[in-house]
Design a protein that fits this description.
Chain lengths: 715, 153
């Protein structure tokens, strides 16, 4: 038996972020063992006490990569789950880049998919070296050595990983270690408890917000009231007079207040007055933007996808419909606002940050401080949510925090945005207009689909912009619409890249946040126009080349016992089907009219195909949470730009978030698959809003083409 | 003048401005970081503590108003309800990002302390002030029910 069988609580003590290293703890019962851990590669470290620490290259904001990546290593290593630890990787692209990005980064639901072979190989290599060490020690062929649940054995002889670690370190590193047949998986596919749960339950988990350094100065910032406005002058006298305020300084991002504690920083910030230059500011209101976008959406735009001749097909159609959709700006509104701790002196800096682009942000902070990259240490922290917000191509918040630290001189600084800073800080899901015209023939077949999208590109001008941007195209704005899952013979998707001074960004599920809604509500209307069932009708027209669409659609119909849109107690149902980030999700929502006249969603059934399910419970949790996040936005959320450029909503009193009473019951079914895993952090989101809208149309006869529903149901 | 109160069973004193929100006294002066800042206006519940045993949003509670009273944070909460709630939370792997969860757990303990067998409506009402942007609500609801059963057993 392995002598070390830590309790789950003990596991967590070593798993709470980036500071505690399991392998640096003294091994009580094994003082005679060598003290150095066995490190077969950059991802796996095995301590003399048998604890296995996995370097996690993806940031943890609840989507589960710590647990998932540790599972992949543990599976191939044949470790016991109780001996696994995790540590957040440092900023190092050669070792820890996202293989899908080429730099360290978390996004696009890629954490498991890009790490799938890499982490399994890391685990398998470590296992092979432990086996070689055991074979040598016992004088037996390696092929006869077995490993199970953290115990290496041959017949009656056993050894723990820790006992073999020193010898294993001298064994050759296998270049291509054999990987398991998926049929032999013992951990992948099971509900392993998440490593970060206990610390996130008892308050001991440390976020950036909780980091404290000796002599640390607390900073707050006053931003310009409109995007693009710049500081003319400020009066810091009243702020300075606040007890605890140390300094007030202009920085490129606004005016910063430095204080001994958070309360003083916030009080000082309130006392600040400033005048701003609006010359370069975006001063149009949302309503003006909408008008401009809608006018453009009535023209064809640059062709992003399509085939056939939709204009001719529309002219020849037996029946046609058209719809104009409005999608508002959306804030990510993470529970933990943007924050960072930076401690620097000439030539050296430590950074505590929930970093989604570890190397990019570390580099940006280094440049701002004037510290060489080699002098930087990033301590990546748990983040209180991201939903895309902490991955900014211009590293904007990191640069702001560094500029504030730099402006005051060497020392330790904690920079925290207020909720209002965060809500009014931009980086929104862009506002957009879709216009779709569709037609069916006399037999009810969809023959024409002409789709135009007018929306800003948040890729343009960033290092992530591809060559298509110069042609006026941006796949992140049209994904899900420039290619349909349905076999429509005449299809066109046009795109207008709108200019806008409001900074925008990807928001959980990116383009699918709006294309999924437009496509899935419009196809539903066309099927209804043809008198066809929403499930059967979709199954008939799904493209042949991707049978996994039909797999999830059939499954969701089965678990919901779908028999059309009418449900019991006067409720109605709607269905939607969206593939995003390589994963297929179909959902059925059951709704009634709430007391406030908007959809009340009672239950959502979801069927998911994301390839091999590494941890079915994490997948279910991501679908529950993803559809809850999407539902809240669809029901309530809109960031409104006032005439002059000010953002109306500032806190949760005006930006209404989904509450527990509004959360539907959720039933998730995972379709068994032998495909390599794809993502699940985002794909649970896109189908929920169109499924609810389709149910609402069945209930009221009215389509909803304007989000959020609180406005769209009366529009 | 210093404000004296009891924090997790120990007498503490704060000599900063009396209008300082209890949240910042707990976090900055006392160094207990389980209680979180989320909104500053009692709209999200991340800062929930117990004041003389009842749920209270510490971000809008001036420290002067807790003089002589007993404040309990996630680090100090004890008792059958607290243990049952935390166990249920872990068993269901409720947290995702985790940032709001101290507040969720404190509100859930407050609910079970006041009402041993809460209905769905009781849960809706008692937890209405706690936002979870990860939308872990399905599991929060189930965990509260499981905890209630465990306390009753």
């Amino acid at each position: 038996m392995n002598a070390v069988t830590p309790t789950r609580r003990a596991v967590l003590a070593g798993a709470s972020g980036s500071l505690v290293l399991g392998f640096s703890l003294p091994a009580r019962a094994r003082a005679a063992q060598p003290a150095r851990p066995f490190r077969p590669n950059a991802f796996v470290s095995i301590a003399p006490d048998s604890k296995v620490t996995v370097m996690i290259k993806h940031v943890e904001f609840g989507q589960g990569p710590s647990t998932g990546l540790a599972t992949l290593v543990a599976e191939e290593l044949d470790a016991d789950w109780g001996q696994m630890r995790v540590e957040q990787a440092p900023a190092n692209d050669p070792l820890y880049k996202n293989l899908a990005f080429g730099t360290m980064g978390t996004g696009g639901s890629t954490a498991i998919s890009n790490s799938w072979m890499q982490m399994r190989t890391a685990g398998a290599a470590a296992r092979a070296m432990l086996v070689a060490a055991a074979a040598k020690r016992w004088g037996v062929p390696a092929a006869q050595v077995k490993v199970a649940k953290g115990v290496v054995s041959h017949g009656a002889r056993t050894a723990s990983f820790g006992e073999l670690a020193a010898s294993a370190a001298t064994m050759p590193v296998p270049e291509k270690p054999a990987l398991k047949d998926p049929a032999d998986f013992t951990l992948i596919g099971t509900r392993l408890p998440k490593l970060d749960t206990p610390a996130k339950t008892d308050g001991s988990a440390i976020f950036t917000m909780d980091v404290s350094r000796p002599g640390m100065i607390h900073t707050a910032i006053l931003h310009p009231p409109a995007f693009g406005a710049t500081l003319e002058r400020f009066d810091g006298a009243a702020a300075h007079a606040v007890p605890g305020v140390i300094a007030v300084r202009a920085v490129p991002q606004g005016v910063a207040v430095y204080a001994r504690d958070r309360h003083a920083a916030l009080t000082g910030r309130k006392a600040l007055t400033a005048e701003w230059d609006f010359e370069q500011a975006e001063t149009r209101s949302s309503a003006e933007m909408e008008q401009a976008y809608a006018a453009r959406a009535r023209t064809p735009g640059v062709q992003a996808g399509g085939h056939g001749d939709p204009a001719a097909a529309l002219a020849a159609a037996a029946k046609t419909i058209e719809a104009e959709y409005f999608f508002p700006f959306l804030a990510h509104a993470t529970m933990e606002p943007q924050d960072a701790v930076i401690e620097w002196r000439p030539g050296k800096a430590d950074v505590w940050l929930g970093s989604q682009f570890q190397v990019g942000e570390t580099t940006a902070i280094a440049k701002t401080l004037g510290v060489p990259f080699e002098g930087m240490s990033l301590h990546n922290q748990f983040c209180g949510g991201s939903f895309g917000r902490r991955a900014t191509p211009d590293m904007g918040f990191a640069v702001e925090a560094a500029a504030i630290a730099k402006a005051h001189g060497p020392g330790a600084y904690k920079h925290v945005w207020t909720r209002e800073n965060d809500m009014r800080g931009g980086r929104y899901r862009p506002l957009g207009i879709h216009r779709i015209r569709g037609g069916i023939d006399a037999e009810g077949r969809i023959t024409a689909w002409d789709h135009v999208i007018a929306m800003q590109s948040f890729m343009k001008g960033t290092p992530m912009a591809g060559p298509e941007i110069a042609k006026g195209l941006d796949g992140s704005a049209t994904e899900g619409a420039h290619e349909l899952p349905y076999a429509v013979p005449n299809h066109r998707c046009g795109y207008h890249m709108m200019e806008n001074g409001v900074p925008t960004l990807w928001w959980r599920s990116v383009g699918h946040t709006h294309t999924g809604y437009a496509v899935e509500t419009f196809v539903d209307e066309l099927l209804a126009l043809a008198g066809k069932d929403a499930v059967e009708g979709r199954l008939t027209i799904l493209v042949d080349k991707e049978p996994r669409y039909a797999g999830v659609l059939r499954r969701v119909a089965e678990i919901a016992d779908w028999s059309g849109p009418k449900a019991q107690d006067g409720r109605t149902r709607g269905v939607a089907l969206v593939k995003s980030f390589g994963s297929y999700v179909a959902q059925i929502a059951e709704v009634s009219r709430s007391d406030e006249g908007i959809p009340r969603v009672h239950k959502v059934w979801a069927a998911v195909d994301c390839g091999i399910a590494v941890n079915p419970d994490v997948i279910a949790a991501q679908v529950e949470g993803g559809l809850g996040y999407g539902l809240g936005a669809a029901l309530f959320n809109e960031l409104t730009i006032e005439p002059g450029g000010m953002v109306r909503e500032g806190n949760f009193d005006s930006y209404r978030c989904l509450k527990i009473a509004e959360m539907p019951a959720v039933e998730v079914s995972i379709v068994k698959s032998a495909e390599n895993p794809t993502g699940i952090g985002e794909p649970g989101l896109p189908p929920v809003a169109p499924a609810v809208a389709n149910a609402w149309r069945a209930l009221t006869g009215k389509p909803v083409h304007r989000l959020p529903f609180v406005k769209g149901v009366v529009a | 003048m210093a404000t004296g109160f009891t924090l997790n069973g120990k007498a503490v004193s704060f000599d900063g401005p009396p209008d300082t929100p209890l949240l910042w006294v707990i976090r900055d002066a006392q160094g207990l970081t389980g209680t979180k800042y989320g909104c500053g206006v009692a709209q999200c519940g991340a800062c929930t503590v117990h004041l003389d045993g009842r749920n209270r949003r510490s971000c809008v509670t001036p420290v002067s108003t807790v003089a002589g009273k007993s404040v309990t944070t996630i680090e100090g909460v004890r008792g059958a309800e607290a243990e049952a709630v935390k166990r249920a939370w872990i068993a269901l792997d409720v947290p995702q990002c985790g940032y709001c969860q101290s507040g969720q757990v404190m509100s859930a303990i407050g609910l079970l302390t006041a009402k041993a067998d809460p209905s769905d409506e009781d849960i809706d009402h008692a937890m209405a002030g706690n936002i979870c942007r990860c939308a872990t609500y399905v599991r929060i609801r189930q965990a509260i029910k499981d905890a209630a059963k465990a306390v009753a057993a």
